[in-house]
Amino acid sequence: MKRRFGFLVAAVLVLSMMLSACSGGNSNNGGANEAANGGSENNGAPAAGEKITLSYWTLFSGGDGENMDALIAEFNKTHPNIEIKNTKLEWAEYYTKLITAVGNGNGPDIGISHVTGLDDVADAAGVDWGTYNENLLNATVVDGKHYAVPIDTHPLIMYYNKKLLRDAGLLGEDGKPVLEQSADGFTTFLSTLKEKLPSSVTPFAFESKDQDPYRLWWSLYKQQGGNDVISEDQKSAEIDADKAAKAAGYIQDLYVKGFIKKNDPDFYKTFQSGAGAITMTGVWATGTWESTKGLEFGAMPIPKIFDQEATWGDSHTIVLPVTKDEDPAKRQAALTFANWVADNGQIWAKAGHIPSKPAVIEKQEFKDMPYRSDYVAVADTVAFGNPSTKSWQIRDLAIVKYLNEVWANKMTPADAIAKMQPEIQKVIDQ
Amino acid sequence: MQMNRWRADAQALLFLLPFLVVYVVFTIWPMIKGLEMSFYKWTLIKKMKYVGLDNYNQMLQDTAFWSAVWHSLLFVILSTPAMIVLAIVLALIANRRSRLQKFYRSVFFLPSILSVAVASFLGLFIFQPYTGLLNTLLHLIGLLPDNKEIFWLNETNLAWIAVTLLTLWWTVGFNFILYLSAMQDIPEDVYEAARLDGANDSQIFWRITLPMLSGITKTITMLQIIASFKVFLQIYIMTGGGPLDQTRPIIQYIWQTGFRENNLGYASAMSYMLFVILLVLSAFQYWLNNRKGA
C-alpha cells in the first residue's frame, strides 16, 4: 500500500513540475492600475484640482530607464493635474505580461506596443500628427487609423573608430571615412582595413548570429527594393527570394573573407576596446560609446551597398491599451503625456535615439549633443516591416534561425531563403 | 477513542490547510485547466474555440515536436549514466577516511547551490571562444594551436557535450550527497568480515558497496531521468536551442509555442504528451524495480 502511494506521489510530482514550467506567465498581472483615480468618473476634461493618476508600464532599463524616469518626473512637475506612475518590467517578460493583462482588461493606462486606436482622443489632447516625422508615423498607422505615438526611432547605423581609420589611411580631412558607397566599395574598404591594421584588430566588429546581422540583412534586402516578407493582407509569405539571397550572400562573404571575427562573444567590447575598426548596431550604442574613455569614434548611416538608401529600424511607441473602464479623461491625459514625451525628445535622445518630431532635432539642446546630428537623416529611410501581430515570431522563428546558418557558412543563401518561405507561412497560419 | 482520532485528523488538516490551498490553486487547478486548454485553440489572451483532438493530431505530425522530444531523450541518455557514475566516484572519494573529508564534501556539493541562471552563465564563460576558460586552457597546454578556436556552442555535437558537462558539474552534488549518506549506512562489520576473508578493494566495491547501494541507485535513476527530461534553461541560455533548433529540448518548444507563438492550446497538448511519456517511463521503471525486488 505504501509503495503504491509512493508511485502516485511520483506521478503527481512529474505532472506538477511540468506544468509549473509551462504555466508561469499565465497569472494575473494586472490590478496595479485599479488604484485611485481621483474621482473623474464622468467624461470630459478633469475639473480644476482633480488629479488623474495613470499607470504606465515600461520596459526600459539602464540609460533608457534613467532618461524615461527623468521625463516622467519632469512631466509630473509641469502637469499638476496628471500623475504618471511608472511600473518597470523586465524586457523579456514585458509583452507576455502586457498581452495577458490587456486580455483580461487589467492593462495599464499607458504602455509600449500596438493595441488600440487613438484618433478619437487625439484632437482633444491637442496632438497634431503633422508635427511627427512622416516615415515613423506611417509605421504606426493601420487602415488609416493611428494606433500609437512614436517617440523615437532607433535604426541600425555604422560606427567607426577614428584612430584606427586614420592609421589605415581611410579617414578623410573632414573626419569621415573614405568609403565608396557601393558593394565593391565597402568590401574594398574592409580589405584595406584588414591589410593595413595589425592582425589583432578586427576590421568589422560584429555579431555572428541573431539580431544585428539580421538587421543588416534586412537593410540590404530593402536597399534593393525588396518587398515585405509577408503580404499586405498578412495571409501569405512573399519573401523576394533573389534579393533576399543576394543580401544574405553579400553578408556571408564578409564572414568568409575574415573581416568579422568569427563567433565573437562580445563585439561591443571588441569595438569599445579599440580592437575593431568599424561596427554596426542600433543607435542606442551611442550613449555607451560616449561614456567609454579613450574611444575616439564617429557615427554615420550604414553605407548604401545596393540601389537605394534603406536601413533597419524600429520605434518606441506609446500606446493606450484597452482597459475595463475606458475613462475618456484618462485617455486624454495619457495622450497628453505621450505627445509631451515626443515634444521633449532631446531628453530621450541622450541614449542615442532619433527623436520622432523634426522640431526637436532643431532644438539647440539636441544640436549640442555630438554624433546624433550625423545620423538623424536616417529617420527618413528606415524601412519598417508591415505591421503584423506576428512580426517578431516571423523574425525569430523563421528568418533569423536560417540566416544564422548562412553566417556560419553551413548553408547557401539560396537554400536558406528557400527554407524560410514555408517556415514563415507556418508561423502565419498558426 | 474514535473521537480523539477524528480530532487529531482535523488538527492535522488545519495545519496542512495553508499548503493545501496554495497547492490546489497553483498546481492542481492549472493541471485541470491545462487539460481543458489542450482541446481548444487558446491564445495567451482568451479561449478561442473548441477544436477537439486537433492539437493532438497536429502534434503527431509535427516533426519539430518529435525532434524536440528526441533532443530531451538524448540529453537523458547522455547525462543519466554519467551522473550516476560520477556521483558514486565522488562519494567514494569523500567517504574515505582522510583529513580532507570535509573539504571534499563541501567542494563536491558546492556547485549545486547555484541557481540555473548563474550556472549557465558560468557555462557560457567557460565554453565561449577566444576568452573562454576551456579554450584558453587548451591553448595554454598546447592542445589547440594559437590561431584556432573551438566553437563549443555553435556545433551541434560539441554543444551537447558542453551542456552535459555543465549540467554534470552543476547538479552532481545532489546525487553525490544521496550516495554518500547511503554509503555511510552500510554497516562497518560487513567490510570487516570481508577483509578477514581476504577480499581486496575491488572485490569489496563490486560485491559489497555497489549491491548495498542498489536501492538508492534505483531512486536516483528515476529522479535523474525525470530531471534530465525536463532540461530547459541551461540549454536555452547556453545555445538558445540552436544551431537550427538542433539542441532544442521539448520544454523549450512547449514554452516557445505557448508564450512566443501565443498558442497555449497546442502547448498544453504537448505538455500532456510529455506527462504521458514521463509517466510511462516511471511506471516501467517502477515495475522493473519491483520485479527485481520480489
Automatic annotation (TrEMBL), chain A:
Sequence intervals crossing the membrane: none
Keyword annotations from UniProtKB, A to Z: Signal, Sugar transport, Transport
Signal peptide (UniProt feature, chain positions): 1-21
Parts forming coiled coils: none
InterPro entries linked to this entry: Bact_solute-bd_prot1 (IPR050490), SBP (IPR006059)
PROSITE patterns with a match to the protein in the record: PROKAR_LIPOPROTEIN
Name of the protein described by the UniProt record: Sugar transporter
UniProtKB/TrEMBL annotation, chain B:
Keywords assigned: Cell membrane, Membrane, Transmembrane, Transmembrane helix, Transport
Entry membrane topology: Multi-pass membrane protein
InterPro entries given in the database record: ABC_transporter_permease, MetI-like, MetI-like_sf
UniProt xrefs under Pfam families: BPD_transp_1 (PF00528)
Location of this chain's protein in the cell: Cell membrane
The keyword Transmembrane helix is assigned to this record: yes
Cross-referenced Gene3D superfamilies: MetI-like (1.10.3720.10)
Location, primary (coarse class): membrane
Entry's Gene Ontology cellular component terms: plasma membrane
Keyword field contains GTP-binding: no
Residue stretches spanning the membrane: 12-32, 69-94, 106-127, 158-180, 269-288
Location of the ABC transmembrane type-1 domain: 69-285
GO BP annotations listed: transmembrane transport
Signal peptide start-end: none
Family: Belongs to the binding-protein-dependent transport system permease family.
PANTHER family, alphabetized: ABC TRANSPORTER PERMEASE PROTEIN (PTHR30193), DIACETYLCHITOBIOSE UPTAKE SYSTEM PERMEASE PROTEIN NGCF (PTHR30193:SF41)
Protein name stated in the entry: Sugar ABC transporter permease
Organism name: Paenibacillus darwinianus
